[in-house]
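Task: sequence design from structure.
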């Protein structure tokens, strides 16, 4: 496993939340703003971001893979993450880039641990392997009631992937998972109310980012 220095995680920001909470919308706005004020930055999504992880993502999200066992699902997420950390995130952090990631190991804790009901200690151990020991310096959880997320889902009329097709009860367990992680790690996770306007949510996120990150990282 590649060793990391203590300065690395400070530059690593992740976004989490249930499906259709507004995460992509916020990441896109945040990243545009970030690009204008830091020297170098990288945006990746987990699972995905590189050729190997995108292939694993395709297997994971394929609605046809109805037979996938929960442990297989967990290990595929970890495999995709390990590739992304080694190939993209660690090299970028070493070059002092600010890395923004759409989901990371908190999603595995919430979806496979709380959602699927896999044993928490085993999920945690798998997360340590998949992330190669890397922990984000700051994590935003966009929190939204699953019923409200469902309304956005219906309105958007998108084709749903395998995970998004899970029902409301599943989304409730996942949401509770994210909130529980945030209660356990209040220093790292910031819960943002996803039921406000897009602009309001973004301003909460940007303010918090500026408070947590020292100005030395800015241009
Ligand atoms: P996610 O990435 O979490 O699945 P998206 O950012 O794609 O969610 O948003 C899902 C849908 O909800 C999109 O149609 C988007 O335009 C809409 N949306 C996002 N944020 C808000 C918001 N704060 N209020 C109302 N609708 C929103």
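Answer:
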């Amino acid at each position: 496993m590649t060793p990391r220095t203590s300065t690395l995680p400070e530059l690593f920001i992740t976004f989490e939340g249930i499906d259709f909470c507004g995460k992509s919308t916020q990441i896109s706005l945040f990243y545009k703003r970030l690009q204008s004020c830091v020297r170098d930055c990288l945006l990746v999504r987990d699972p995905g971001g590189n050729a190997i992880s995108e292939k694993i993502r395709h297997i994971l999200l394929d609605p046809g893979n109805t037979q996938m066992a929960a442990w297989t699902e967990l290990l595929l997420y970890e495999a995709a993450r390990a590739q992304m950390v080694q190939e993209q995130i660690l090299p970028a952090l070493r070059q002092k880039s600010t890395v923004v990631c759409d989901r990371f190991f908190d999603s595995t804790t919430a979806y496979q641990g709380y959602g699927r009901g896999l044993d928490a200690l085993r999920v945690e151990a798998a997360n340590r392997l998949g992330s190669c020991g890397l922990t984000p310096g700051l994590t935003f959880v966009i929190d939204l009631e699953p019923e409200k997320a469902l309304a956005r889902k219906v309105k958007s009329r998108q084709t749903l992937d395998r995970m998004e097709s899970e029902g409301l009860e599943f989304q409730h367990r996942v949401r509770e998972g994210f909130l529980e992680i945030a209660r356990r790690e209040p220093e790292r996770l910031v819960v943002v109310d996803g039921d406000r306007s897009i602009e309001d949510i973004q301003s909460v996120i940007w303010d918090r980012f500026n408070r947590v990150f020292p100005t030395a990282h800015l241009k």
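The first helix runs from residue 23 to 35.
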